[in-house]
Amino acid sequence: MSWRGSTTVSDRIFASLPYLLPMVEAVTFGFFLLKQFPPLAVIFTPILILWSFYTSVRYAGLIIFFALFLLVVRNEKISHFIRFNTMQAILLDIIIFLFSILTDIVGLVPSAGFAIQTLSTTIFLGIVVAVGYSVIQSLSGRYAEIPAISDAVYMQVR
To answer: Please, are residues 55 and 91 in contact by the beta-carbon 8 Å criterion?
Structure first.
């Protein structure tokens, strides 16, 4: 849905870049799956490299989160398409944070290893699918409509 105007190639590329944040955050949930299926680790090697840099900088997630929100989402000089996709990536990142709290709570239960593995793999695959869909839509110049998340994004991005 490109009712806000046409998008240029650079807008499409810049709109898909913020989705690196939820992908890098989701890698921590994907380690169980990547260990069981080594060919997947080859596919996710660029994300794993970014993850190693990301974890080496203290508070990198918080800094990137606020930088994207304050410098991109709230800047009305940037096209609506880029701001929409940036806010959607931020909301996906918030969802990952909430799921990390959930896995921490499940981890308190004795002998919950299998439950944590299943939950982590499900979260990882869900984020990979959501990010993949969003990036493909962004590169196509269309708004990625994810139920409930996109509605919240429309409320934030004017």
So the answer is: no
Q: How far is CA 42 from CA 32, 35, 46, in A?
A: 14, 11, 9
Nearest to 1 by CA among 69, 80, 72, 76: 80
- In this prediction the pTM is 0.90
Pairwise CA distance, residues 54 & 150, whole Å = 26
**Left (φ > 0), alpha (ψ -120 to 50) or beta: where does 110 sit?**
beta
For helices 20-36 and 80-107, give the axis angle rounded to 10 degrees.
40
Span 113-156, pLDDT tens digits: 898 999 999 999 999 999 999 999 999 999 999 999 999 999 98
